Protein 1
Amino acid sequence: MSDPSTRMLRLLSLLQTHRFWEGPELAEELDVSERTLRRDVERLRGLGYPVDAARGTGGGYQLRAGQRLPPLLLDDEDAVAIAVGLRTAAVGTITGIEEASVRALAKLEQVLPPALHRRIAALQEAIVPTPKFGMPIDSATLVILGQACRDRERLRFGYVRKDGEQADRTVEPHRLVADHGRWYLVAWDVRRDDWRMFRVDRMSDPASTGTRFVGRSLPGGQDAGEYVRASMRDQPMRWEASIRVACAADALPSPATWWRGRVEPIDDASCRIRTSADNLEWLTVHLMFLEADYVVEGPPELAEHLRATAERIGRACGGGQASRG
């Protein structure tokens, strides 16, 4: 690879994988001598790229984080992923990054080659962003939580429970999870000596304590997303409902998977949904998505609420004595 500019771009692309490259291996990859490789590394350093070098047997090179952001080298797939991510972030639930996302997207589109620009434009035209759902989250809060998860440092923050009780919590953060428009922190609660899930929008003043900890594994080999979904299903709610559906469990329409509940097979032609919610309106909305026939086994308040809702819908469709103007 004789052209220096092409060679340096290739070198930068390899180093941006963040793996450690032994000198001979990297030189062979670029088809240059180790002396030429050393000169190219010095040129990258002159451009602001912090390349660490280890000498001696087994020595090599690795790109590390620096004090400022140098130019980045992106391949086509990187550019597509970043463009779509920036567009999504501009209409997301994380406050404080919308304007920055639009600015970054404009800068990226300025330097895209025509073919790639058309590809991204076609993809963005096909994407319809949905309205924001859930409480907005300050981006600075997510950064603090994410860094604490990465560095395994204990966190302290104020937290408001669902019942309104407020208390200070000290936790060992595990992972951040985004689910249905909300952000959750999965962490080991130091005082309760157990795993807990915290809604990020209910936190206040999160800060690292500077105390490191040894990471733990979630129970049952779950990942953080599975833990959040299981915790949401198991949370006590005001209304516990049982719905018998005239449909086999494995043929249940997919909207039933949105429910915070469980599906129990009864026989080849029916199943039972056990679910819960804090209000009857939420249960009613989900039941209206079911395409199969069903019977409300309980509570009676849900059956009455469904009956009243059906009457209103009937009147709206002309089935009742609606007033005429």
Protein 2
Amino acid sequence: MKMKHFSLIAGAAFAALVFAGCPDRRENTLVVWVFTDEIGQKIEMHGIAETLGMGIDVSLTPSDQFQGRLDPALRAGRRVAPDVFTLESAFVRRYIESGLLLDLTELYEEVSGRVLPYPVEIATYGGRVYGMSWQATPGAMFFRRSLALEYLGTDDPAEVQEFFADWELFMETALSMNEASGGRVAVISAVGDLNHPFRSARSQPWIVDGQLYIDPAMIDYMRMARFLRYNSLDGRVDQWSTGWFDGMRGTLTDGAGNPVPVFAYFLPTWGIHYTLRNNAPLTHGDWGMIPGPVTWFWGGTWLAAYAETRHPEAAKEFIRQVATNEANIYRWARETGDFLNNVYVMNRILADDSPAPSDSPVAFLGGQNHFEIFMAMAPYVDGSKIQGTDQAIDSLFLEAVTQYVNGEAAMEQALAMFREQVRAQLGF
């Protein structure tokens, strides 16, 4: 297991005590486990160790290994379990529903009315809040301006949005662009890009009254994915593959070596920073963004604390400083471009009309302010369909989608296999 480990200790005398071999270091240290290096950056940026007056021991584990480390630690009790840890959207509800987390309702009440509803909704169980997030992650549709000009006659985001205001228009526009380009232009690179938008459109979660429920929105997703593949409207690559990133760079080709221009990507707030900008230097400034057919979200990071932590007040203060302290999160957003789960702070940032630096998301988007688009969508994101079993069920469902899209199984066959796998593995 790959882990990175570092300590931030408040005061030289305390540091000397700890590293000299304190009998039980945890008595004087807040142990924090994370899967993202953002927390370490925040601790240093905001001087949180000094605020707490105690050491902060941070251990970084890759996201795909994180649960495998955290689960046995929580079962082992407070001599092993971290005091504070991060949770992501794929598995946050599993821990929120576990009964193992410290009640953070008082932290929420301090900022109630100032934060967006859906991150709190996801972290609420039995009327109590067990996780807090500094960010929100609504999604948008990022499009190539040059392709919009060539095939839609405009690259103005408001006008481009009219071509993609719902899924029916999305399909019509995808067909017309593909036809006008002689079959070259793909509306998206991977059909997996549409998973989160359709999931967010569900009226019911996966499990209803103890039974698996396949919402019509997920059937629509299967049909949409098959429609795009059958009509050669996608780039025929997988999310996170080399081809997926090639589409961002404008270098995707088909099996015969012919260029495949990709029109759009469905990405959340973090996607522009860590995915699109990092992999599209050749197309810098040629991107715009629109809401697209639906309001949706993807990802996010919550902070939670172990219910039996030796340092409940320090744990709460740590989460307060990282996730809800408005001076801290304002500075974080200004320096990183992260979208915040705080309406007041985001409005303060939007009111700043100073010129954007050349390496900012605004410059990357041809002068468009990404915060404005996300702010318009974020209040309408619905977090009520998230459940603790989602990660396992989503994975099985995507296998069924792949079989259907690739023509390996008819829809009913793929769904029957999905139902059987959920029953066998999860008991629903």
Protein 3
Amino acid sequence: MEENKNKDVIDLRELYKKIKARKRLFLITLPATFVLSCLYIICFPRYYDTDVRLAPEMENPMSGGALGSLAASFGFDLSNMETTDAISPMLYPDLMSDNGFVSKFFNFKVVSADGEINTNYHDYLQKMQKSPWWDHVIDWIKQQLPKKEEDAIAGAGGDGKFNPYILSRKEDGLIHKIQDNVQFSMDKKTGVITIMVRDQDKLICKTVADSVCSLLQQFITDYRTSKARNDLKYYTKLAVDAKHDYERARQLYGSYSDRNMDVVLESYRAKQEDLENDMQLKFNTYTAMQTQLQQAKAKVQERTPAFTLLKGASVPIKPSGPKRMIFVIGMVILAFFGTIGWILKDELKKTV
């Protein structure tokens, strides 16, 4: 029993002596880890973060009743979440999963802080991004490989135009890069949408955030007013047709009345009355269509949501990462304990 107890007891002084005896090993591992960590982390370019907070107007057809009161007691406001829209505001962040929506980012105009870059977001991501040197080596190797047939035809539809749902490997990579750089989130309690953007250039970071915010507002506006705009288009066509019919009926009535001004025959007078009645009916239809048209215009305005910008995108002053000092210090600390583990590996095996 005493021998087992002695085996379980760890003599810290003996361990310290063994570590001290191998102190030269630390003079090799720690500086080497420091240098290698610096060389590794310095290859990664700096990046900046900024965000936009947007509060879109939402329909509140119901107050929520007892359920709304119960949810309010837990800190949730159901009145902000209820809507007659088919797309709930909670689903807006899922737009970043759609290639059709994300591909619209390609046309954003971006200018770097130093003014050397002035192009669209697509070319900027494809040709002007900084990356570790080994990424360039991997890209060069990929370029030497024969291209697959599907890559040659991807990205174009049947009419030769760009199709965001038929992408080449390169275009698909750009889509994924944008999805990594731009993130949507929505607060379930307040309904506030936060757009977070990351980029290697601080001015481009702000520009993309503003552009995404405008694109999201346009999407929400188009969706919320789509039915009203279709109704407006329909009533506009009806009003134009009604006006054309009325003017044609008025011309027929006027020309017939002028030709038969002195005629007293009842048949002519009956024909004139028929033309006059038809003209009046066409006028009433035209007036009704004009009223419907004005109501449709008002409906479009009514359905157009208002947006409150709670926090605009600002040009970040300091880079958000990579945290080079923290990384290097962390690697040195890891190397320190790793070296201790290597020195005491025999003792650790005995305690297992």
